Amino acid sequence: MVNGYIFDLDGTIYLDNQLIDGAAEAIRCLRERGDKIVFLTNKSISTRYDYLTKLNNLGIGANIQEIINSNYITAKYLKQRMSKTDAVFIIGEEALFEEIADENITITDDPKKANYVILGWDRMFNYEKINSAYQAWVHNQATFVATNPDRTCPVYGGQIPDCAAMIGALEGVTGQSIDLIMGKPSKFAANFVVNEVLKMDPSKCFMVGDRLETDIRMGNENGLNSVLVLTGITTLDMIKESEYKPTYTLESIKDIVDMKNMISSG
Ligand SMILES: [Mg+2]
């Protein structure tokens, strides 16, 4: 039986620039038996091609169609939803601009012409950008769309603020919740990967990741099998405390092939 495996990247396949022991062999083994593979990350400051290069350099063969990030899901969603006369104002980094431009979506730097504001992780975020987004909202009732809901991103030695910091700033000035949040754990991300990329029944898909509130939650809420790996930020104690219980828990991705080392199930 062919299954689909959706792998988170950081904490699941690698930690920073270090491949997790056994990851390359596990993925090779799944491919050899005919399973389908997708890599899915929320991180919006790198392009899909950056991840392709990184995976290839770490010894994991992949092609670009298998690599999905929150920018790509956002661009594909907006392309379907927007009309030709619509325009977006973007808060984010170069990778996000590139992905939106690749879909031939009109990008404007004039907030009064924007009826969508896209928010991604932006390490040059400032007051001027908050004001621009606010003016698009006031003058044009712009729809706010964020690439991902992550509060922080793990980095070597700690964590740094992620897209939720930008979301919080805009929710602060409008007094309203943001309209749409793409990426994990949203149904947009799950539907896109399952229906558009894997093209499989969700019950045959396994979402494999290290974060309960994104990876595992998305799997559970969208009819996928969820698999937590303990090589990232989650400990066994955290599973007990969380409302998002994985279907399977593994020490590491290297156990994915037969799951015989499964150490708990929810
Ligand atoms: Mg992760």
Characterization of this structure:
Helices cover 36% and strands 20% of the residues. It is an alpha/beta fold. The protein has 2 domains: 4-42 and 184-265, Rossmann fold (3-Layer(aba) Sandwich), CATH 3.40.50; 71-181, Rossmann fold, CATH 3.40.50. The strands form 4 sheets. A 6-stranded parallel beta sheet has the order 5-4-1-12-13-14, with helices on both faces. Strands 6-7-8-11 form a 4-stranded parallel beta sheet. Strands 2-3 form a two-stranded antiparallel sheet. α3 (70-81) packs parallel to α4 (94-102) and α5 packs across α6. The protein is globular, with a radius of gyration of 19 Å.
Question: Regions with pLDDT < 50 over 5+ consecutive residues?
Answer: none
CATH class of the largest domain reads Alpha Beta
Beta strand count: 14
Mean pLDDT: 95
Rg (CA only)? 19 Å
